């Protein structure tokens, strides 16, 4: 009899848990639809959360900080129990997150860390330092720097200064490149090397194009050779390619320089295939979404939330427990395997 009661009680708990889950609303705030990766992130998260029985409100904010703030307010008003936020400006969410905390809403920073607030509970991202290291190591090995080759001319770009990731990418790349700059095997003819000078607000392709135009005009007249451009991501690489094209690069006498990227956006995979961009860093957004869904599930069921880094990501107030997924090198030689065979893209997407 006692055993029967226990079994019935356990069953009731399981039923009420899955019923509760069905009624749990999760708010997903994404920065913009203009960049392919965020569309993929949003769609993956929504599908995976719904498959687990959660209700989802997914919103994109057109890279506008106030729009994102308003969307978060609305999600809280609608009764979201968890917010998953890919912030536009990581340092302006303190007030809205204070409100969230007062209502016991749990907050997961998605891909980009949310800064200067105690009210962010977890962070799920890729190993951002490693992304930069992959880009730097690619430049190192392609130029044969380890073997003492050089000097080569390089120009440096960094991502948006309001995105905490941007400095991680830059530091990762410079951890490989700086010794060669110091020894003179890599030369930066513009002299522009510090993060704030080379950062591109909002990761904007047009702004990257304009900066590349200026660099070429001021430093690469009289056929001075540009060997490498460090681009932190694909949207910036797109602007750089446009500038290079307009300035006559891409011919036998003036070949495209080595150019890095990140995200494996479709236009950039095409550019890699056609030789305008050299490589990208693939961050499988399906993995990140799966990880976040697991975090949400753990939070809602009182399980220990899975994290694998409790040291690296200090947001100015606290170290946020993080889960770091692994970024992967991608170029012409392996894109088929990692992008097509894995089902991430169809062949027709990138032709
Ligand atoms: C992401 C990159 C992306 C960039 C621009 C960064 O926070 O980690 O994957 O390219 O934002 O959207």
How is this structure best described in words?
It is a single chain. The protein is of the alpha/beta class and 351 residues long. The protein folds into 2 domains: 2-120 and 284-326, Rossmann fold (3-Layer(aba) Sandwich); 128-282, Response regulator (Rossmann fold), CATH 3.40.50.2300. It is built from 12 helices and 12 strands. The strands form 3 sheets. Strands 2-1-3-4-5-11 form a 6-stranded parallel β-sheet, sandwiched between helices. Helix 2 (36-51) links the parallel strand 1 and strand 2. Helix 8 (205-219) packs across helix 9. The mean pLDDT is 94. Bound molecules: beta-D-glucopyranose.
Summarize the structure.
It is built from twelve helices and twelve strands. It is an alpha/beta fold. Bound molecules: beta-D-glucopyranose.
List the helices and strands and how they pair.
Layout: H1 2-22, E1 25-30, H2 36-51, E2 55-60, H3 65-77, E3 82-85, H4 94-102, E4 106-110, E5 122-126, H5 128-143, E6 152-156, H6 164-183, E7 186-187, H7 195-198, H8 205-219, E8 228-230, H9 234-246, E9 258-259, H10 266-274, E10 279-282, H11 285-301, E11 322-325, E12 328-331, H12 335-341
Parallel strand pairs: 1-2, 1-3, 3-4, 4-5, 5-11, 6-7, 6-8, 8-9
Antiparallel strand pairs: 10-12
